[in-house]
Amino acid sequence: xxxxxxxxxxxxxxxxxxxxxxxxxxxxxxxxxxxxxxxxxxxxxxxxxxxxxxxxxxxxxxxxxxxxxxxxxxxxxxxxxxxxxxxxxxxxxxxxxxxxxxxxxxxxxxxxxxxxxxxxxxxxxxxxxxxxxxxxxxxxxxxxxxxxxxxxxxxxxxxxxxxxxxxxxxxxxxxxxxxxxxxxxxxxxxxxxxxxxxxxxxxxxxxxxxxxxxxxxxxxxxxxxxxxxxxxxxxxxxxxxxxxxxxxxxxxxxxxxxxxxxxxxxxxxxxxxxxxxxxxxxxxxxxxxxxxxxxxxxxxxxxxxxxxxxxxxxxxxxxxxxx
Length: 323
Prior knowledge:
globular, alpha+beta, 32% helix
């Protein structure tokens, strides 16, 4: 029996885990250590309300942490770590769910959608970092309430036509499926950031015209130029640039196709403007058809971004003009 059978996370200060944190399964056979000094520096991990994660957690929500494999070490003392191949996943990629075969404790998950990373099941740890997001927010029970201070992604399966409702708006599954591969994009971005930081550490100045190299050339504090900070900037840039565009495409297309007279007029104009459909059109060729431009301009306001409350107080303390 543990020293504190209540498992009170408040009994453990975040400073206790400044070099990392270890957790074990119920029987103690499997110990998983997270080797990350930034584990409690910022929000980490996510809550998931999808059906499969709830089943694995044995609860109404699962607490997960997606992290690089090299930051995780696993000791399987009695050889009890077993893996189940879950083929019924939203992305279409099998999810390999590992657990202790003695006590049934979920340990981790791995999938090709996130190469080089592992999803840890955080219930085995003495303290859990505040999550940065929760997925499938529409799947909450009525009595659960809200988790304040974290982003909620409302994704809902809408039947055999393979459509999703994401953040309350209709997205065709084909678009969302591409967004589910964002992990691969972020992985390539991390490699790109590493390729810039390594020469910089050696005193070299890479002549790269990317967003990240431009940041490195600015007169910024060193803590704003760390690997983790640049990667978080990448997540923000990629997320803002992909989801917003996908939303605009999906919403505008829906309204055009949902109104036959608008669709017919637009198709007629495009057939006149594009005499050779098999030939790709450049921007100039598509910038002049007036009805196409009107549809785009009308569609953009319908594809509004996510609305959320923001604290108007400056988090750096009192800011006085002239200082």
